Amino acid sequence: MIKVLFAGEGGQGVQVVAEILAKAAFLDGKKSLYIPNFGVEQRGGVSLAFVVVDEKPVVYPKFDKADILVIFSDRFVQRVKSYIDNQTKIILTPAVKEDSEFKNDSFVKIKAKDFPVKTWNILTLAEANKLGKIVTKDNLRQALEKRFANQFAKDKSLKEMDLKALGEID
Amino acid sequence: MKDFLMGNQILAQAALKAGAKAMFGYPITPSSEILETWAKLCLADKSISLLQTEDEMAAGFGMIGACLAGKPAFTATGGPGNVLMQDAFSMAEALRIPTVAMIMQRGGLSTSTVIYSQEEVRLTCFGGNGEGFRLVYSTSSLQELYDYTFKAFKMAWKYRWPTFILADGYQAKMKGEIELKEINQKLENVTPILKSGVNLRNCYNLEEEIGKIIVNYADEYNQVRDQLEEYEEYQLQDAELVLVAHGIVAGAAKVAVDLLRKQGLKIGLFRPITLRPFPAKAALDYLGKIKKIMIVESALGQLSSLFKDELYELSLPIIDINKPAVGFTPEEIANTVKSLE
Amino acid sequence: MENNKPLFPSCFKTNSKPHKFCPGCGHPLVLRMLGQVVDEMGIADKTIFMVDIGCSLLAWDFFDLPTTQTHHGRTIPTAVGFKQVDKEKIVIAYVGDGGAYAIGLQHTITACLRNNPITTIVVNNTLYAMTGGQMAPTTIDQEITTTTPVGKSEFKTLHGPEMLKNIANPDAYLARGSAFKPLVLKQYLKKAIETQIKGNFSLVESISACPTNWKTGAKQTMERMEQLEKTFKLGELND
Fold first, then answer.
1. Contact residues on chain C for B51, CB-CB shorter than 8 A
2. Are residues B170 and B27 in the same domain?
3. What is the domain range of residue C69?
4. What's the confidence (pLDDT) of residue A98?
5. How many folded domains does chain C comprise?
6. Does B335 touch chain A (CB under 8 A)?
7. Do B90 and B212 lie in a common domain?
8. What is residue A102's predicted lDDT score, i.e. its pLDDT?
9. Where would you tag: which of A55, B67, C20, C132 has the fewest CB atoms within 10 A of its CB?
10. Domain A2-166 belongs to what architecture?
11. For the segment B4-25, what is each residue's pLDDT rounded down to a tens digit?
12. Is chain A touching chain B, with at least 3 CB–CB pairs below 8 Å?
């Protein structure tokens, strides 16, 4: 069983990548459960996304400690500390500056390179899957393409950018 | 056929397959996707309809109107919407109208959170100025949202008690795998209630008139309850300590039972599936020889009150493990049980 | 012995007569006109009658038509729900001024806004009669009720059909008649039902007498009705 928690604020694309990950697990023939967890604000409030992937049916969508924790912004570092134990692998987006918070834990800081901010969530998805070996790359790509089918149809450059962020193309 | 869906989407699709013809509803988190999914289904199927009403009272009474015309109708709500709908549910209880309502519980007390709790148990089971002549199913998984929707429509029209799927915001919003079974169900007893020769009243003049009706309903409810009650038992065969839980908490409790059994604890789970009528006889049978019970819920003793009300004959220690409006992970239940043992 | 036609409309339920309304009440007059319309239009086999909670509830067994009481203010949404799934029926919501314009006001407005093809009959006696004579949205200026013991003055009187006119579909039918001008009222009721058959919203308000709560004798009741018929304009609300 692998437990992944994505944490950021509304509007950063936290939920969509969690959903894609869970869907990819389904396509792989694994069992998964995804649940969003946020308040009433449509933008800017805390946004948590829990994903559990396992071989056997998943009964409960939330967990106490994450195997992989992805943090999208500084604002929520304190909020998600309770989900960290000494097994947790932490991934930080380029937006997180409080590296000093994690000096005792191992973490991966994603480099922005020339990726625009709106694709940073996809970068975290790729990194989480790399670290956790959660789903097959083919199905992760398929789940992403299916999820953004409408957007990609309207804007081909977006598709190229997202697939690059996923690590599927150079 | 397997698919990957959100709980709310599953409920709407199941309602369609179960024979629902109309939905009346008012948007409220965490149930709104049920309304939205039904709206999309209406585009493809002209035999069904949707009315988004001006408030929850209109939704409840619209649903009653459709049922009176002999068409299976349903609604979905939670929290303050559930509070407002008790006006309609009271009338359904009085006139034996087979309404089906999907209650996606959210935080208790006023507007609260839009997320989750198990704090609408008392409201859904005994709300309104009624006596709880209701059929309430508490589901604990995405698959059960599907399966019990079929059952809800079938039992509502057969037995004519207002019927409820009592779920919660977690089940509503979680996405996972579901088997969209082909359940060939033909609803029995689906005929217009308001027809020639029928004059219905819910207002009476003197005490004895309504008193007699209530007693008659109670007799009937008691006579049919064994056909309505449902429960699940897990690892009770040699259990000394039993957890009692419902809904998604029961799901987590089952995993906790496994964890604790591995540590040598003789523990099991009794899960009521119908909260009304409560599976009292089964509980009595299974729990008669048990040493101790722990009742786990995301509320302040609402399940526990129901349990104690029906099972006062059981004179054994009961410990309430309450976290109002907050969920339990399996590990948390296991740790709490160990610390209290 | 030609004239052996029954005096009651044939859709009346004879075993619930004499009816339970107070002497001098406007309800029986309105109901008699409605009964005649149902007979003359030959629609008894497809009429559904729904009543509110208030004095209108006493009409629950008035007609030999499928009838149901509802909850106070909730007659209109029940009627809308029924009609939505069974468009062949003529669905009538029979309510008082409290049900239509206070507790059920949002339902009245929304049904009109949506042009729901139901017919609402509002029996307006300017107060809440069954509960003992409290103020209503239609209580007129200076009127004494049990909750306005020195006369109402704080806020306006609601003129329902006029208010609805602003949001009604052009093909909807809105009118106000009087229980004391029954034959004119009868025409309005007939047009209202014809409007439903054509698929549009209709609402007919009928000014009505309540000698019991007005505490008026016969003569004062008549005078009061004449006064109300001037305050609440009678007629059809056409463009």
1. 80-81, 84
2. yes
3. 14-236
4. 63
5. 1
6. no
7. yes
8. 72
9. A55
10. 3-Layer(aba) Sandwich (3.40)
11. 999 999 999 999 999 999 999 9
12. yes
Any CB–CB contact under 8 A between C208 and chain B? no
- Judgement on whether residues B10 and B67 belong to the same structural domain of the protein: yes
In whole angstroms, what is the distance from residue B236 CA to residue B286 CA?
Answer: 7
Residues C67, B200: C-beta atoms closer than 8 Å: yes
Asked if C85 lies within 8 A of B69 by C-beta distance, the reply is yes
Residue C2 maps to a domain: no
C11 and chain B: CB distance < 8 Å anywhere?
Answer: no
B51 in the same domain as B18: yes
- Of B228, B261, B286, the last residue of a domain is B228
Which residues lie closer than 8 Å to B137 by C-beta, 6 or more apart?
B148, B151, B152, B163, B164, B165, B166, B230, B273, B274, B275
Are residues B251 and B118 in contact, defined by beta-carbon separation less than 8 angstroms? no
Which residue is closest to B59 within chain C, CA to CA?
A: C77
Residues in B closer than 8 angstroms to C67, CB to CB, are 194, 198-200
Q: Does the beta-carbon distance from C83 to B65 stay under 8 Å?
A: yes
pLDDT per residue as tens, chain A (170 positions): 999 999 999 889 999 999 999 999 999 999 999 999 987 887 778 899 999 999 999 999 999 999 999 999 888 888 899 999 989 999 999 988 866 677 666 789 999 899 999 999 999 999 999 999 999 999 999 999 999 999 999 999 999 999 999 998 76
Alpha-carbon distances, residue C237 vs B213, C33, C166, C172 (angstroms): 45, 20, 11, 10
Question: Do B170 and A33 lie within an 8 Å CB cutoff?
Answer: no
Do A39 and B113 contact (CB within 8 A), yes or no?
Answer: yes
In this prediction, the answer to ipTM > 0.85 reads yes
Choosing from B228, B254, B278, the residue where a domain stops is B228
Residue C8 counted as domain residue: no
Q: Check CB contact under 8 Å for B327 and A62.
A: yes
Contacts of A55 (CB under 8 A, 6+ apart): A1, A30, A31
Sign of the dihedral defined by the CA atoms of residues B61, B66, B68, B71, in that order? negative
Q: Are residues B161 and B237 in the same domain?
A: no
In a shared domain, residues B69 and B158 = yes
Which among B54, B65, B91 is the nearest to C79, CB-wise?
B65
Residue C92, strand partner residues: C49, C119
Residue B110, token pair as written in the block: 């006023």
Q: Answer whether C77 touches B (CB < 8 Å).
A: yes
User: CB-based contacts of B238: which residues, under 8 Å, 6+ apart?
Assistant: B266
Give pLDDT tens digits for C207-236: 999 999 999 999 999 999 999 999 999 999
Name the token pair of A45.
């409030």
* Residue-averaged pLDDT of chain C: 96
Same structural domain for residues B158 and B213? yes
Find residue B244's DSSP bridge partners.
B270, B295
Show the domain range for B288.
232-340
Q: Could you report the per-residue pLDDT of C154-174, keeping only the tens digit for each?
A: 889 999 999 999 999 999 999
Q: Band the pLDDT of B315: cuts 50, 70, 90.
A: confident
- Same domain (yes/no): B54, B77: yes
Which residues in chain A have Cβ-Cβ distances shorter than 8 Å to B331?
A: 63-64
CB interface of A with B, residues 36-75, below 8 Å: 36-37, 39-40, 57-64
| C134 and B CB contact within 8 Å | no
pLDDT at A79: 83
The CATH code of the domain that includes B236 is 3.40.50.920
Query: Would you call A62 and B170 a contact, using CB atoms and an 8 Å cutoff?
Result: yes
pLDDT value at residue A77: 85
